[in-house]
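Deviations from the work plan: none for this task. Representative record:
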Amino acid sequence: MRKFLILGAATIPLLFGTALAQSCTVTIGSVMALTGSLGVLGQQIAKGAQLAVADLNAAGGVDGCTVKLALSDDQTQANVGVDAAKKLVDVQHVPAIVGALSSGITTAILTSVTAPGHVILISPASTSPTLTQLGKDGKTGGYFFRTAPSDALQGVAMADYAYTGGLRKVAVLYLNNAYGQGLSDQFVKAFKGLGGTVTQDVVYNPDQPSYRSEVNKALGGGPQALFLIGYPGDGTTIAREWVASGGPQTWLLPDGLESQAFVNDVGPSYFKKVYGTAPGTTDTPSLATFKKEFQAKFGSLPTQAYMTNAYDATVIVGLAMDYAKTTTDTAAIRDAMRKVTDPNGQKVYAGANELQAAAGLLKLGTTLQYIGATGPLQFDAYGDVAGPYVKWTVTGGNVKETGMITVSEIEKVQAELAK
Amino acid sequence: MGQYIADGIVLGATLALGAIGLTLTFNILRFANFAHGELLTFGAYFALALSGVLAFGPDLGSLTFGWGFVLVIVLAAALTAGLAILLDLLIYRVLRRSDVAVALVIASFGASLMLRNIVVFVWGPQPEYYSRAIAIARPVLPGVRLSADEIFVVVVAAVLMIALHLFLTRTRLGKAMRAVSDNAALSQVTGINVTNVVRLVWAVGGALAAVGGILYGLTVQMIPTMGFNLILPMFAAAILGGIGSIYGAVLGGLVIGLAESVSVLWIDPGYKPAVAFALMFVILLVRPHGILGERS
């Protein structure tokens, strides 16, 4: 009998707790490319955000509310993405949107929906320097953040990696959007600065029926390798046409093409030598927790860039709402984003258990430094983060990460180029 | 230069096959069928499904497929022809009775959206290929490299166009089709069964679109939006050549393919999609009925 009483007593707060958490829901919006050119990457990245929401709920929700993720597909098209974001903001009244992936779509959503609507936009994967520029021009209202570093860094990292790898003549084929232009500009500047030659710098449009003429143009001048900047959908077509036209099978591939599906679709045997870069993760306990939880939830290990970034972006939004003790006042949440990633704050890590501890600290109004699965994320004035890059390659048909390029290494090359 | 021309012809051949069906439906049924691109998509995916069932046989020479694939093309074309007739029965025939001409065009937008999403639902959004092997281009002329698959594409397109020409000029059915296209009321008076001819138009247009889609899938890739991405260049080809003119559609397809490909020599490829439309604009200014269009 006594036992039952104790059990009963133990159950009451539990029931009460659940009832409280479910008494309201807060919806975090998300716009990602689940289909279209970036679809194969986007479907994986979305899982990062889904895991984050599951963890936030396991840790008791946000500001007493259950968190829901309203995930919309932008079909890798800016107009579809803007419509999806409009719906999230105008109909579902979300305080924050995690997305988009493509820089072109993020720019469109930022300038036409979230900045004017004072809604937080945090992108896990948009790397174009354009987005920093928009911040500098005062067009974001401070409502834009990203958990992926700007390509101002990746262009330099790739140029350094290729040049030290012995390449001197490289052709560039880049996607005609903010991502492609930004990365290609940075790379061309850095590679020439190091002493290399860019034989051709050719732009291409998405969703074209054929890329043969672009590929032919890029072949001119006898490059040793192709730097292909794009997304897996069109990227596959271009890579296959490059191989079919007899282009050298040495590749420089950025984050947008770090995908096993891309390699499989083109054909693993055509990747003789690959110099790949992608935003990396600093090794922290968070990364191990993320991998473990990810495998438990989805049955496989995370394999590509930006999955951790999506997780961290979603978690930071959740923590910020908890800190601001509001799920509607977007200005307060915006300011709180920096309070939960403060380098002087109390360190908390990723994972359901850690987030529960964080929720306890936030109740007391403590400033936190969330150390995410990506690493410690500290937003600068324009919502940018700095981060290391991983080098990846294709060996035996598999995408494999082989090493790191640290922030200080990139800064060293940048200093050299500035001379 | 030679390489750009060769690439333009390969793309143009695919566009021409699609544009023929478009121009036929426009001329005989008097509406712009925006769902026509999806017939290319379905043709390509039908062939994908069939090629999994029917054994390919060993690859022929340096082609990336065997004899079985020819059978696959024929069957997929037949299935797509059936799909086109079904669409007409379920949607267009009902709407043709209404007086609002634009209803058909809007309905075709809806049909396009529906068909595209069926493809996503059944086959998924990821790109698909008939063969993972890449047909490596070999020099065929000085400065021109083509793969065996690309030569196959041009040959098949040429054979089909000649066959279509013979069908339209030498057979009763073909002549009936041209008669209905010229004047439906008058041809009905002379005893032509217009309903049957309409069905035939759908079948021929669908089958040619299917082959166009398969050839495109063979040399590029298959994705659910492939037909949708091709519909504007196909419209440009049909309008450029002269709406209603089959030879015009073929010519238009080649002109668009060549213009897009060769223009890269002089202008930034970022503006490539605009070239086809700029050209269409100029030609329509000079010849409002298209290159081979007849004055109505």
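Residues 1-21 of chain A have pLDDT under 50 and may be disordered.
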